Amino acid sequence: MQSFLKGEILNKAFTLLSKYPLCNSCLGRCFARLSYGHSNNERGKAMKLALLMEIDKMIKDHEIQDLTQIKEVFFNIGELASPLFSLYYNEGFQKRSCYICGDKIEEIKDKFERDALQILKEKGYKTFVLGVNLPTYLKRLEEDFIVSNDLTYYESIKNEIKRDVGKRIAEKGFTPAFEDAEVELIYDLEYDAVLEVKKSYKTLVFYNRLSRNVPISSWYAKDGISLESSLANTKLYVPFSELSEYRILEEYPLIVEGEVKDVAGYYFKPYGKVQGKELSTIFTLKPTNRTYRITVYSEKPVEGGVNIYQGVYDLFLTVKEPEELKAKINELENKGMVILSIDLVTTSGKVNTLYTILYKG
């Protein structure tokens, strides 16, 4: 019969329904990227009706002589085929469950919408994003179904559920926000439960460290004093930094997940929330060169140094790597100089693009 059907789409639908019982949505999802603006349920129902009309015509035109060859298609189409089936077969119609969703997809959507709305209303959330966790068996079944039937225009069941339920919830006055939602609501199909995952946001701040020996990480704290210990219940992400005995006079970036508050020795200049590509970009922009002010004491005049007090000089050194700075410090000490202090003064390189775009611009 397949060779008599007109159109590649109808032929494909007939082939699928020859092998699998499929509900309207799961059949329509096989062609989800075709006919923009229609639901998968509408696509599936339209194809089933077109198939039934074509089959009926072919029977009436005597192009189908043996009705047993299409009986499976009737059963796999479902209740929509029952009236026509009763016209040609003297037996009861066989009800079958959808091969993919087990005829549960609308029930799943209704429960997801109901439970998600309850959480949004009770917790006072205004913005949301949805997620769906599929059980392993369903993931494998869907993957095998796509591959074995060469379904170019297929859409996953989880995408359909998220999209349709998201539209319903939006119609109730809540705002879908993929980038900065207050909460993510995940429907776990295996456990038949909606999980609430409150979204945490990362904030970009620029900071100066004006006190020495107050490291960012508690790991390097000598007396237990650090930025990390002062910001309890706050996660810190450091793109780059300096040794704790160096003051940092240039604005350095810091990513904070949690509350940002004043800490002795640190001066913060908040920028705002960052995420996604913006966040990953920050971690790729590191200084090419770093300029330090090294204050030394020397009984002899220091070549290239700025005399700021009797025997006290400021030297400005620009290096690319920490090892290079260490080597220069050793060189100064070998010349009889005493290192009094080291300050990071300025940087250059791609990191300055970050300052220009996000802060200074």
UniProtKB/TrEMBL annotation:
Quote one Gene Ontology molecular function term. Answer: pseudouridylate synthase activity
Q: What is its EC number?
A: 4.2.1.70
Recite the UniProt keywords alphabetically.
Answer: Lyase
The protein's name: Pseudouridylate synthase
Pfam families in the record = Pus10_THUMP_arc (PF22023)
Give the species. Answer: Stygiolobus azoricus
Q: Lineage of the source organism?
A: Archaea, Thermoproteota, Thermoprotei, Sulfolobales, Sulfolobaceae
- Residues of the Pus10 THUMP domain: 115-188
Q: Mind telling me which NCBIfam families this protein's record contains?
A: PRK14554.1-5 (NF011139)
